[in-house]
Amino acid sequence: MEASFVFFFLLLVFVSSSLSTALLSTNGFSTEVQSPIEIKNLLEDPHGVLKSWDKNSVDPCSWAMITCSPDSLVTSLEAPGQHLSGRLAPSIGDLTNLETVFLQNNNITGPIPAQIGKLANLRTLDLSSNKLCGEIPSSVGHLGRLHYLRLNNNTLSGPIPCESANLPHLFFLDLSYNNLSGPIPGSLARRYNLVGNPLICDANREENCYGTAPMPMPMFFF
């Protein structure tokens, strides 16, 4: 009996140690701490809304704009309308437990990191009304749990990734007022808006050009 107890205790220690190691980045910091710090470092924060994000802290769940699960894993990043500028760090993709990202109504520039596609648990992504440019990364097609996606009012260009038509739970999509071009994937969200993209057409047929015609929008709020 005693030998069994010792074995069970050692097994628990090993498992706990393995889990702790898995959550550490290469420099020894927890990924749940290191990734937000890298996000902060690439952003300009004129009003100091992210000042509580301290790299020496072991508890990101106490930081402003962040919500965590009971297991102290970052599940939500919400900083809308905070006058943030700079770029969105690729390390956002390391916060693999994220379910909600609200960064709308800021002045964030640069491309949407392809690493966003690593957020397999993401349900809501709102990067609207920023100054994002470049193409929508095809990795959005990996966001299999995504329900709600807003990228409107940026300067995104290029085609709508065909991978975005494969998102089984996507209910709402707003890509309006960008510089997108090319054909519309065969199946998008049940509710979507493409107005303000005059180069988006279906097979170059004017009656099917959605650049100037708003699409039906849902009547609900998040």
Automatic annotation (TrEMBL):
A Pfam family annotated for this UniProt entry: LRR_1
Signal peptide: 1-20
Keyword Repeat assigned: yes
Protein localization: Membrane
Keywords: Leucine-rich repeat, Repeat, Signal
InterPro entries: Leu-rich_rpt, Leu-rich_rpt_4, LRR_dom_sf, LRR_N_plant-typ
Major subcellular site: membrane
GO cellular component labels: membrane
Keyword Repeat in annotation: yes
Domain Leucine-rich repeat-containing N-terminal plant-type per the UniProt entry, residue ranges: 37-69
PANTHER family hit by this protein: SOMATIC EMBRYOGENESIS RECEPTOR KINASE 1
Name recorded for this polypeptide: Leucine-rich repeat-containing N-terminal plant-type domain-containing protein
The species this protein was found in: Oryza brachyantha (malo sina)
Taxonomic lineage of the native organism: Eukaryota, Viridiplantae, Streptophyta, Embryophyta, Tracheophyta
Gene symbol of the encoding locus: LOC102705540
